[in-house]
Design brief:
Length: 264
């Protein structure tokens, strides 16, 4: 099996892929999520992983390779230690060098997050150039790949949950609310007003960035991923498809390109 981990600021997404010989098959066999806890030890993370494997009928000894896309640098050494201790493997980290031959239009490619690299590689591999990938996570990222397969950059905005939490933390009388689509734009209670502002305001943010991006590049496909993507889908017609496991697939593709010479 091939183990892919997407270490984000809020959650760690774990994908187990089947291998046939030396090739990793697309579409993970199982996907798990763990909370990102920066002070947790390698042993504690290993215990959680082993339990997930055991209760779903998988054997950790069957893991042949481990690849990680991390945006939490402090956890890299923890997972490196865990992988060596419990899987007897060396971690393959996604970064601007281990990027599946992704071409960068900007010279500041060291600043591009590993998750954004994985998303861009997966989108280009599956759909070709002219893609916008919108990843609805802790932050919402917009990643743009032109028709020549170059990563142009994009935009980063606070995610919907961060916006909701900030509103509650920075005001004296506004509560923390559930983020969901309200029935109308004009709320009649404080909770409804906050939900309307957050939801429709965020839809407007996404639509505006898409509109401006289309002025700057040719767009053939708009792909969404991330935990909150489905919440926004019905309001944003420009989104063609939601691919929940896009980042995990990107990790798989980059590893295969580096180690197996995978071609588009």
């Amino acid at each position: 099996m091939f183990l892919a981990l997407d270490i984000g600021n809020t959650n760690i997404t774990v994908g187990l892929f089947k291998m046939e010989g030396k090739n990793v098959l697309s579409n993970p066999l199982q996907v798990y999520k763990m909370s990102t806890i920066k002070w947790q030890t390698s042993d504690e993370y290993a215990t959680m992983l082993m339990n997930m494997f055991f209760y779903n009928g998988f054997n950790a000894r069957d893991v042949k390779h481990v690849a990680i896309a991390s945006v939490v640098p402090s956890l890299n050494v923890i997972f490196e230690e865990m992988t060596k201790k419990y899987f007897n493997k060396k971690v393959f980290f996604i970064n601007h060098k281990n990027c599946g031959d992704l071409k960068f239009a900007s010279l500041d490619n060291k600043e591009v997050g590993a998750d954004r690299i994985a998303d861009a590689v997966a989108a280009y591999f599956m759909y070709g150039g002219g893609c916008i990938v919108i990843d609805f996570g802790t932050a919402t990222t917009f990643d743009c790949i032109d028709t020549n397969g170059r990563y142009l950059g994009g935009a980063i905005a606070p995610g919907p949950l961060i916006s909701a939490q900030s509103l509650s933390l920075k005001t004296a009388q506004l509560p923390q609310v559930e983020l969901k689509k309200p029935s109308k734009a004009i709320g009649t209670t404080t909770v409804e007003c906050i939900q309307a502002g957050l939801y429709f305001g965020y839809v407007g943010l996404v639509k505006e960035i898409i509109k401006l991006t289309k002025r700057e590049m040719k767009v053939n496909h708009i792909i969404a991923t991330g935990g909150l993507a489905s919440l926004m889908l019905n309001e944003i017609d420009e989104i063609e498809v939601i691919l929940p496991n896009l980042t995990l697939e990107g990790i798989r593709i980059i590893w295969e390109k580096r180690n197996r010479g995978l071609r588009k």
